[in-house]
């Protein structure tokens, strides 16, 4: 049985991912702002260092897998915080834990992105560039300035939608670039991303103002399957990506979104 770290383990998709791993007999080290083995704020450099140290102490320096799930959504009020939590959080955590994954001999990492990266037409190229360059201060400043220039109707709908979609876009690109770097690929540490669509969690319900039983056919994006995802639907794939047997997939971005991305971009591959 293995040892796995899961961020965002206190709620929603992260909690379901941790439950799937625990049910399979593994040891799970949960990381979150509350109700977790390691309490840390992944939105700050200090918090990320605390998270890495805490996980390394709990696993004894050898880790079989990491699921970087923690995040906030497009309705978070501060675009700068969205960039810090949703992009710089998982990147720093995975960079910090990569050596422990290498020591396992079959290290696996999976990151939760979003289909917003390909379905929301508000990708901010400059923000993506600053994030991928690792310049958090400049990325935060840019995100705030871009947010304040957004039309009122967009801000009323989801104040950080552009920062959110752009952070998840940058994260998917970081996964694809990093997965094939020799220090990951040639050392047997596989890195993939999942791009969920609308999943019934506190984050999603909070961003739409919906009840806990919203109607998929009234959702603003196409929902070909006619239903919302459940946290368990994403946890299933988290578990698959983290298995040692998943040994020939790296740099993939898997849409687990009920067909939304395919409906919006049928000819993209
Ligand atoms: P959730 O709100 O149920 O869970 C998110 C968890 O992340 C919470 O336990 C929260 O405390 C933790 N978290 C937030 N900020 C943190 C910080 N600064 N440091 C440490 N932990 C922090 O939300 P959900 O839906 O389970 O979200 C999980 C991931 O899935 C997020 O990255 C989100 O962007 C992504 N996602 C969710 C979708 C949805 O429809 N629910 C769709 C696409 C992506």
From TrEMBL:
Keywords, comma-separated and alphabetical: Oxidoreductase
The keyword Transmembrane helix is annotated on this UniProt entry: no
Pfam families, per database record: adh_short_C2
InterPro entries: NAD(P)-bd_dom_sf, SDR_fam
Family affiliation: Belongs to the short-chain dehydrogenases/reductases (SDR) family.
Name of the molecule in the record: SDR family oxidoreductase
Natural source organism: Actinomadura keratinilytica
């Amino acid at each position: 049985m293995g040892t796995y770290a899961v961020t965002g383990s206190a709620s929603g998709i992260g909690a379901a991912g941790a439950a799937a791993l625990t049910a399979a007999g593994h040891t799970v080290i949960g990381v979150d702002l509350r109700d977790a083995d390691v309490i840390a704020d992944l939105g700050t450099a200090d918090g990320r260092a605390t998270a890495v140290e805490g996980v390394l102490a709990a696993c004894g320096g050898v880790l079989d897998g990491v699921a970087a799930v923690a995040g906030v959504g497009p309705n978070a009020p501060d675009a700068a915080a969205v960039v810090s939590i949703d992009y710089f959080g998982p990147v720093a955590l995975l960079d910090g834990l990569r050596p422990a994954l290498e020591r396992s001999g079959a290290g696996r990492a999976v990151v939760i992105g979003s289909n917003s990266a390909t379905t929301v037409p508000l990708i901010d190229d400059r923000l993506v560039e600053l994030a991928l360059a690792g310049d958090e201060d400049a990325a935060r400043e840019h995100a705030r300035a871009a947010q304040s220039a957004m039309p009122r109707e967009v801000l009323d709908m989801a104040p950080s939608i552009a920062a959110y979609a752009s952070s998840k876009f940058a994260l998917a690109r970081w996964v694809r670039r990093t997965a094939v770097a020799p220090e990951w690929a040639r050392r047997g540490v596989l890195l993939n991303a999942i791009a969920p669509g609308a999943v019934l969690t506190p984050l999603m319900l909070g961003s739409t103002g919906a009840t806990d039983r919203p109607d998929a056919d009234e959702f603003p994006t196409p929902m070909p399957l006619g239903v919302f995802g459940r946290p368990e639907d994403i946890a299933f794939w988290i578990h698959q990506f983290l298995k040692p047997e998943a040994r020939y997939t790296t740099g993939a971005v898997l849409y687990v979104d009920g067909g939304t991305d395919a409906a919006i971009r049928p000819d993209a591959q």
